[in-house]
Amino acid sequence: MRTLLFRVLTGLALVAAMVMSWIQLGQFTALETSVALAADVREGRSELGDLPRLRSLSQTAANAGCGLLREGSIVTLQLYAVGLHARAINANPLLPAADPDLTAVRWATRRMLERALVCAPLNGEHWLSLALIDRSLGADPAQIATHLQMSERYAPHEISIGRRRDSLF
């Protein structure tokens, strides 16, 4: 009887381990796909056809923990989604727009950037992205200036970040 009970419990433990491993494999595969797409975006990818794919990642972005936010790919893809939404409706990516979908994506991105800065408060690129999103949402110029100052403080010499900062003026 003990042997049978031991075998049943061992079998259940193995099934549970396999299920958890399968879930982890799915999450890892999704992350690897996101990392690859983010690398392409950093290299200049800009395809409106990516919008449906990015919508499926929005839930991942909304629930991203500090590890994903510090890694940066999910932040890059969320910012990419904002840019593609603006381009799809011919809106200026730096200015407020009347489109409710674009505004919703911008607000979701802002919330994600706030979480990313809690995880990595010294990230000058995130501070700059927050300034850009706030500008696109029509935020108070003093608030935008504060975010720019934080960006300059934590990323004073990064050329790509400096160019993006200059685009605000």
How do you describe this structure in short?
With 169 residues, the protein is mainly alpha-helical. It contains eight helices and no strands.
Structure report:
This protein has 169 residues and is an all-alpha fold. The chain has 2 domains: 111 residues, no CATH class; 49 residues. The chain is built from 8 helices and no strands. The longest helix is centred in the N-terminal third of the chain and has 41 residues. 28% of the residues are buried. About 4% of the residues have low confidence.
Assign the structural class, choosing from mainly alpha, mainly beta, alpha/beta, alpha+beta, or little secondary structure. Answer: mainly alpha
Uncertain runs are 25-30
Largest pleated sheet: none
Number of strands: 0
Average pLDDT level: 84
Number of helices: 8
Straight-line distance between termini: 78 Å
Helix and strand element order = HHHHHHHH
Q: What percentage of residues falls in helices of 4 or more residues?
A: over 70%
Could you say which overall geometry the principal axes of the C-alpha atoms support?
elongated
| Strand portion | under 5%
> What's the number of domains?
2
**Rg from alpha-carbon coordinates:** 20 Å
Tags for this model:
169 residues; mainly alpha; 77% helix; elongated
